[in-house]
Amino acid sequence: MTETAVGAFQARVRQAGVPLGEAEAAQILPAWDKLVTWLDLLRQPALGAEAEPATTFSAGKAP
Amino acid sequence: MIPTIAEAGRLIAARKLSPVELVGACLARMERLDGTLHAFIRPDPEGAMAAAKAAEARIMRDGVRGPLDGIPIAHKDIYCTAGVPTTAHSKVLQGHVPARDAVVVQKWAAAGVVSLGKLATHEFAFGGPSFDLPWPPARNPWNPEHFTAGSSSGTGAAVASGMILGGTGSDTGGSIRGPAALCGIAGIKPTYGRASRRDVLPLAQSLDHTGPMAWTVEDCSLLLQAMAGFDALDPASADVAVPDYAASLGAGVKGKVIGLARHMHERDNPVSAATLKGIEDAAALWRSMGAEVREVVLPSLEEFNACGWVILLAEAFAVHEAWMREKPQDYGLYMRQRLMLGAALSAADYMQAQKRRAELVARSLAAMQGVDFLLTASAPGEAPKIDAVPQWGFLGAPGFTMAFNVLGWPAISVCAGFGEGGLPVSLQLVAKPWQEPALFAAAHAYEQATEWRKRRPAMTEETA
Fold first, then answer.
1. d(CA B38, CA B131)
2. What is the pLDDT of residues B210-266, one digit of tens each?
3. Phi and psi (nearest 5°) for B417?
4. CB B310 to CB A30 under 8 A?
5. Domain range list for chain B
6. Is the Cβ–Cβ distance between A57 and B172 less than 8 Å?
7. Strand B411-418 to B186-189 pairing
8. CB pair distance less than 8 Å for B354 and A20
9. What ipTM does the predicted assembly reach?
10. What beta strand segments (E) does B78-177 contain?
């Protein structure tokens, strides 16, 4: 992991108002890297997708 | 011999079993075993015995209210209980004493259950197994060196060991079905909106479900009967009539179509040999009962997990935002660091996941056209050792349960045999929304035709 990557992750968390030191950010970074692969997956077109984009889950009834 | 809820209920109704004796036997098991299992974080033996005596007197006078009258249960410690601390197993909420019961707690109390206390959970139903919290994590009755899964860890351990006959769980990504699987019991996550979550501490509101855990499918049906129903003050609750689950429990599977989702447990996340055998044997059994079994292909577990975990992390951080800003060190390490991931997500990330969720629902419904049930694993195999559970396991090989939180479909985990280590393996059966009666009937038929319910953890047999 690079110092830049740790700092970038630390900045994202701090932007949310949560204190996070560099050492703990470095501990979490590998998990964040995995999560980023999922975020990339979610931005790829879904195979066979025909549904209209939803803005929220259907509260009050089954999806 | 530890009775099921159905057996005990019949005996109590016939006045052949005393609720005081039944609760006393459970409390004796608790006293003997819970020093090892840590299923309870707040046992209440005095309160339980007083409630059992009151129930017994009332039953002798008025007869039983129903099949749950006088039955010993307990609640996961995210279910609010009036006047009794509800902490989510966390230092953050130590000293939190709710003013009222959760709706589900009220409903079960009205049915006559006797509560034996509050059960261990992963911190706020997410952070575990953790050894840096005010209470230790629950351990697996089949081998206390092993993991219960979570987050309804205490419920799984307490039911499997016979300290209670049933209990509450909650399921946001598999927290009912995971512990049911590793502890060798039954647990159902009902349809999203089926049972109230009001005054149950939330983890991620668009994925949170309440549901029951018990030794058998039949017992789960009795418990869900008493907890299901519309709650206008739970924004996710659905105003859909609650069927009589017991009435259709013997319906079997003749004419039903079971979709075997092999890709999930053979390719997306290959399961153990014992788990695979359990699934294949169950498919053959249901086929012999008149069901058709055909292969189905849904979106990959990886895609479901990507979608579900991004939503869960973002919504969980929204729940914990204020405390994470003010007192992050009050959380255990696992919970705090998992919430940090949620803090780092953007609104766009969250909306991409919700958009994908709608697509996953549409693709799954299309794949299940003409199919009544989906069959796959609920866990990859037997429980691992509790000290070998990775902190970021949910980001590793994609789990089998999150998919059905994303979809909101009812899903049940039942014991499907035992592995090489002598611990239980399991299968997961899933239905479309509101099809709990058929789901219970299929799972009950399987349970009745197999031997797995005759075997309890050795530590409980010593006290039987």
1. 12
2. 999 999 999 999 999 999 999 999 999 999 999 999 999 999 999 999 999 999 999
3. 125, -165
4. no
5. 5-460
6. no
7. antiparallel
8. no
9. 0.94
10. 114-119, 166-171
Q: Find chain B residues with C-beta within 8 A of A31's C-beta.
A: 337, 341, 391-392, 395
Closest partner residue to A31 (CB to CB) among B236, B306, B395 is B395
Strands B373-376 and B40-43, bridge-based pairing:
unpaired
Residue B45 — φ and ψ, nearest 5°? -65, -40
What pLDDT score was predicted for residue A2?
Answer: 67
pTM: 0.96
Q: Which of B300, B340, B357 to mutate to probe the A interface, most A CBs <10 Å?
A: B340
Alpha-carbon dihedral angle through residues B326, B327, B329, B332, given to the nearest 10 degrees: -120
Distance CA B4, CA B18 (A): 15
Asked if the C-beta of A10 comes within 8 angstroms of chain B's C-beta atoms, the answer is no
Nearest to A49 among B239, B353, B363 (CB): B363
d(CA B311, CA B406) in angstroms, rounded, equals 9
Give how far B338 is from chain A: nearest CA, Å. 8
Query: Each residue of B370-396: pLDDT tens digit?
Result: 999 999 999 999 999 999 999 999 999
- Domain B5-460 bears CATH identifier 3.90.1300.10: yes
Average pLDDT over residues B431-459: 98
In this complex, the residue of B341, B344, B358 whose CB is nearest that of residue A51 is B358
